[in-house]
Amino acid sequence: MQPSLFRKASVSATVLLLSCAVSWSQSAGELIREGDISDARFDGGASLQSYLPAEKLEPKNVALLVHISRAYRYLMSDTAKTSEKLRLGALAVTYAERAAALEPKDADAQLAVAISYGKLQPLVSSGEKVRTARIIKSQAEKAIRLDRGNDLTWHVLGRWNMGYAELTGLKRTLAELTYGTLPAPTYADAARCFEKAIALNPRRVINYIELGQVYSEMGRTADARRVLSKGVALKQTDKDDPEMKRRGRDILAKLR
Questions:
Q1: 4 backbone dihedrals φ, ψ, rounded to 5°
Q2: Element (H, E) at 126
Q3: CA–CA separation, 10 vs 75, rounded Å?
Q4: pTM for the structure as a whole
Q5: Mean pLDDT per segment of 10 residues, for the chain of length 256 residues?
Q6: Residue 65 in contact with residue 101, Cβ under 8 Å?
Q7: Is 168 helix (H, G, I), strand (E, B) or coil?
Q8: Torsions phi, psi for 185 (to 5 deg)
Q9: pLDDT of residue 22
Q10: CA 94 – CA 107 distance, rounded (Å)
Q11: Which of 156, 222, 150 is nearest to 190 (CA)?
Q12: How far apart are CA 14 and CA 132, in angstroms?
């Protein structure tokens, strides 16, 4: 997917072009610092107004490309329109893949590819899901080999395991007839990844909510209640935390 960068989106092309025009006098470092301030507020649109001009000055800055990819993922969360989510997700993938290709030993760059494809998973066809799921797993495993201490990498691998664990019975058989033999991870595999993520970062909401859902699927109701309750009580640290907390409360309400 190669959508045009300046097609109408949540951030208007006019604003971005004006931003570029007035930023030539600034150094890449200054622009990046400005973008980082907006990034810390999860404001993808504002961060891109600084990051994109900085990219013109430093097109091979791997950390900057990773940040731009994340900014487009933030914008995905801010729009309800599926076509726009797909467009923004494609841009997130493009920037992440550029970063990963420039620096194969950068764990954050490899992880950015996995996360960006993961954001697109609910929006694409079954065939595309299977194709990109293989990429997600490969990139997450690369990131783990490079840096075993990043909780987000274990979280992504846990999500991957959970997604395939959900494919059972007829659904799995039909998928394998169409796309070939699929991996056979279990909810226990997913749980171990999320447990590792929590051990590395006990302050991240999404790790608890996903683990709680897995425990629920495994019939571990008391454990599910415990981790979900902890997750919904934590302070927000990530863009998707409000939505994840709502999901956690919904799961809690259904537990008996």
A1: -65, 135
A2: helix 126-146
A3: 7
A4: 0.84
A5: 41 48 75 98 98 98 98 97 98 98 98 97 85 90 96 95 68 56 77 98 98 96 97 96 97 91
A6: no
A7: coil
A8: -75, 165
A9: 47
A10: 17
A11: 156
A12: 33
